[in-house]
Amino acid sequence: MEQFQELLSANPLLLLAYLFGSVTFIMGLKMLSHPDSARKGNLIAAAGMIVAIFATIFLYEYKGQEGQPVKLHNYAWIFGGLILGTIMGWMAAKKVQMTAMPEMVSLFNGMGGACAMLISLIEFRNDSLPPTGKIIIIVLGMIIGTVSFAGSIVAWGKLAGKIKDRTIPGGQIINFALFAGIIGLSVAVIGHFVPDMPFLFYGILILAALYGILFVMPIGGADMPVVISLLNSFTGVAAAFGGFLYNNPVMLTGGILVGSAGTILTILMCTAMNRSLKNVLIGSFGAQNAAGGGAGKEQGHYKEISLTDSAVLLAYAEKVIIIPGYGLAVAQAQHICHELEKVLEEKGVEVLYGIHPVAGRMPGHMNVLLAEADVPYDKLLEMEDANDQMGTTNVVLILGANDVVNPAAKDDPSSPIYGMPILEVEKADHVIVNKRSMKPGYAGIENDLFFKPKTSMLFGDAKKVLQEMVTELKQL
Amino acid sequence: MDQITVFFNGNYHLITIVILSVFLGIEVISRVPAVLHTPLMSGANAIHGVVIIGAIIVMGSAHEGDYVSLVLGFLAVILGTLNVVGGFVVTDRMLEMFNKKKKKK
Questions:
Q1: For A174-183, how does the pLDDT look when each residue is reduced to its tens digit (9 = 90+)?
Q2: Is A232 close to B45, i.e. CB distance below 8 A?
């Protein structure tokens, strides 16, 4: 009962602050899941976090050597770290381009994982022969924190284009061996079976880091959001282990909430792509492609279209649906895209946007991007609505989207994306595809759409092409 | 085994919190429109920054002469703060855009 009493004997104000923190986290998450209240929910959770942090700094007491309560000290270090972290975090978050948001989330997630890892590391250094319960918590917190840290950094590197997808031969066997190694060493450390504890402990650290890297490495970029969401819930669990370590209710509720909500969110994201989590983690796009791509399906010829021709086609259409994808985000072409929409509307063309739920690198990525360019909300059609309107559409303009319009998802059962709902652009009269090259999309699969008779290719960087198109249109 | 029983007894209330929080987390976000997946993930990301509290405790209870602990703790505080501040600010920036278009409607 010792640990529970410690919690009760804490300063009632501190406990109240923690209770407040926990409640704001719950409310924040709840409000974040509704569009109207989302922003307020985020701010409420942030307020709760600030209260919990400052209450800890000033009110927390730990047990000293004679069991007497001791206030925290080293204030200079604490505030130094807080200020430095705040400045760096604030600047990074404010400066980041909307397109790079996913990477940023992954990076911040990795920082949280690293923080949990360091806490375990320090606690272990302070007391390398703690009671079994405590050592289990320290070891588990470190493993999960480290996996999350290493995995998030790889995910960040992949999204930022710094790390390429690669399948490691025998990757699954290596991962399994690493996993077994981690468990073996953990049991040895927890059970005090060997005298050389620190050595083993750091061994676990290294294995966990390797595991995190190899776990994310072969997963294709298109699946990165799912992986980030999963790692996000990992970090939540790592934070919760910290809560156990310090009998800290706010760390516990915050961590576990994120752990469970994050897991559900991960599953929701998979459902949006019509795939199972297992499928994402084991049968990664990259690996399947290596096996299935060898078949080398006969590809026809694709047809190019000039800028002027596409401008004419668009100007004389009655209804145009624009389908944005990651290419638009990369080219930062959302503003000029809005401009094109306005020019076309002046010419009496009805312009709508078809938004696939997983277009871009994250669900909702395109909504955020187009909202930044002030595209009116009611012009953004969700996938089902867009598909209903395709039949009456004259021209579909695809801007840097690929996998979300790939008909293979509907009619090729051997395709890795088979079963994913897509935007059925073929129902429209004409399809203009703007891409930088014929290179396959992020899932690494060929797109038959480009070879269909209705489809014309318009190569070039989305921003440049759209700028020129707007100029053309104004002259028409 | 004895130690585990002792641990369970000693932490019974914490374990209860864990179990209830699991259900709460599932309940709270079971119906979310796809548009909000990214901001929600980002918001949840900021909330697990609560691990910063552990870093503060470790830092604040380190012996003044123990430089390894001080430096590692300092690093942990910075990383945790990055997670919290960066997480909330990024989420707010994403959601700011949703609000903007609301006003125009």
A1: 888 999 999 9
A2: yes
